[in-house]
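Run Glutamine--fructose-6-phosphate aminotransferase [isomerizing] through structure prediction, thanks.
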Amino acid sequence: MCGIVGYLGPQSPKDIIVSGLKKLEYRGYDSAGVAILDHGKTKRVRAQGKLKALEDKLATEKFDGHIGIGHTRWATHGKPSERNAHPHQVRGISLVHNGIIENYLDIREELKAQGADITSDTDSELVAHLIANEVEVTKDLFKAVQNVLEKIRGAFSILVMWEQEPDRLVAFKDGPPLVVGMGKDEVFVASDVQALIQYTKHFVYLEDREVASIKGADVKFFSANGFPIQKKIVELNWNPEMVEKQGYAHFMLKEIYEQPRAVAAAIEPHVNPETFSVALKNVGFGGQSVQKLEELDAKADWAKTQEVFKSIERVFIIACGTSNYAGNVGKYLIEQLAKVPVECDIASEFRYRNPVIPAKSLVITISQSGETADTLAAIRMAKEMGATTLSICNVKNSTIDREAHGHLYMNSGPEIGVASTKAFTSTMAVLNTLAIAIARTRGVMSEAEEKELVKSLLAVPSQMEGVLSYDKYFEEAASSLKLFRGFLYMGRGTSFPIAMEGALKLKELAYMHAEGYAAGEMKHGPLALIDERMAIVMVAPTDHLYEKTISNLEEARARGGKVISIGTGDNEKLREISEHYLAIPKAHWTVNAILAVIPLQLMSYHLASNLGYDVDQPRNLAKSVTVE
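Sure, done. The structure for Glutamine--fructose-6-phosphate aminotransferase [isomerizing] is below.
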């Protein structure tokens, strides 16, 4: 998502920062800015839109200082605008931030009570105010940052500078990645090594709750409570394939990390971030060819889409494998939000069970490639029976996309790893917009409810960045986890298909026995499997089924199962009864599934990698199944 670049050294900060930000454009952004020291004061230049707008503003700007920070922003708190763009400045403090501050409302109220002049709608500016308050007392930027770390909660990586210490940068994180690049008489900071690889091959990766204090060319690292720590300098010697992988060991891991941007791209065409409303774009139910969708009149196309939604009496979701599990999440969303009955079918079974498809049915097919043979056959059958069809694909102009009446896209970009990750989460994001659109069109959802759901959905990409911090945990835990003889994944509600997807990932990648069950079914058979060598992976975010899920978990634990649980926030109950507890941010139930699947992806990836398997190309599997 957002990108951070900082520089301290003899070269031009403007050139290095802008160059680095260009390398981070793939992450997606809606505004950009820099803050660079000039004649003892920090000069800030910001612009909404693409980097070209910022470059045009910077073309005639000159700076005599040798320290600066830059940022590309993707809006979460506050709409895309120059006033909300980073860096934020408060009384000599300049700051850039990736992630989300969960307790920002409390901080905002406290600062307002103190008379703070808050000039943006962001949570990021509030941290700049906190540091500015502290530095007035400590007269030391590093000490001020230490004090502020105790006051903020969430997932964040932050880089800050202060006019009174013109040769110092301080960087700290708890969630989203942040790296320090070590050069000769110069230091770089970025959210991704991709931004810096042209300048140095030597990097230090900050772990959560660590602080880097940079003074001149000297860098010291500390824990959050101020104790010095030794960090390993990693030398990256990238070959062309590694550059293509952007430094990740495998395409799959790269694609797992691309999910925040993929989800943002999936919802961007359909969501208005100013009115927090949904209007599906370029669906094409009017009969236009796929090639002409971009030429559609937006209002007329949306009116035709709404006409279709008002007429339907039943929805069928048809897909295979991972796409089928996304479809099952869609079933919960559409039935609960839009009050339309939904059947979810495996494509290979659907066409052979002689299904009854009423005339006023919407048949939704999901296929990452758009070429899945069974799914293609299902959509052709549905059309022959008179149903309206809607495809959700990642590949535009694929066969399924061309043959459907309506079209929605995952927009997740190329997915090289055979085991789908970002296409899955993008699909669930698209299904959220679809369910909201159907519900509003049919008059069963209020405007206030729509706003609440859209706000929650817009926050997801930033929240996903925090969940990705579990990467290191599973990398370290893989050696012990691989000793289990089996894994039983369980969940209720939308967490049930996520449990099935988690089990599928482990089977695909690590070739280990894994089963996904509805947690309420445990007493109907699976309980017999449980002993001390069986891992119980329970997906239990806080929702209306949470208490029942905990009861199921207690039963599994009583039989000796070792529990790995995924819950919401700092859940003491889950921590107490679990061997390992993983927290996802507090969110609306409609998006919990998008967040909860990420730890399951990471667990499967690291287990398979630890076992020495090829995670990008698992044995016996193909990316696109184009034959039955």
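DSSP finds 20 helices and 27 strands in the chain.
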